[in-house]
């Protein structure tokens, strides 16, 4: 009888004693910078980072790494001799920054805000750490460009015919053209026109020449690292401006 009464009481509602009252416990705030689950031990040199990341981002250079460091987005630790050493977490953070720029055209200020949210645990992002691998060769054939970028050989040939990519040595193209091939393929697949693509490329090359001219005095004085940082800053500003124009409400009208 007592058991039946207790069962009926249980069906009527939860017992009031504290032993069965569940309390939701807030998760502690994460410590350190995102990604928190990866090692933050500074084990990797600049050359290791380039080998790990350049297969996906062939245009990545030491000057780009210095620039992102100066902007506070990816902050490697320094050795006693001043050399930058990166952790696996730094490398994944670098990939996040580069993907935000490449895939979403986001300016650095927006990316920095996103990273702050990840650091505080207010936002979440999947991580895809990869082992340090072999860097792409300096020069690639059309077949190799197609294979490494996951595009059709016909597309690579079309870009070469239209002058979007050009041979650096006979029969070979720079590995930096990998990014050009991939993004050009995405543009054309989205309905873009080859002639318009060529016009955009020529505009980008003209801006590149303007940037080189603007930092020529610094290079003449031997201030090459400062010149690289200034060049990168201006290039990022151009990308941000272009992206802001595309994001205008009437851009797709």
Structural overview:
The model is unreliable at 1-24 (pLDDT under 50). The protein is globular. It has helices at residues 2-12, 46-53, 62-70, 88-104, 108-120, 142-149, 153-161, 177-189, 194-220, 224-246, and strands at residues 77-78, 84-85, 139-140, 173-174. It is built from ten helices and four strands, in the order αααββααβααβααα. Helices cover 55% and strands 3% of the residues. It has 253 residues and is mainly alpha-helical. The protein has a two-stranded antiparallel sheet. The protein has two domains: 46-120, Multidrug-efflux Transporter Regulator, Chain: A, Domain 2; 139-247, Multidrug-efflux Transporter Regulator, Chain: A, Domain 2 (Orthogonal Bundle).
List the helices and strands and how they pair.
Blueprint: H1 2-12, H2 46-53, H3 62-70, E1 77-78, E2 84-85, H4 88-104, H5 108-120, E3 139-140, H6 142-149, H7 153-161, E4 173-174, H8 177-189, H9 194-220, H10 224-246
Antiparallel strand pairs: 1-2, 3-4
Helix pairs in contact: 3-10, 6-7, 6-8, 9-10
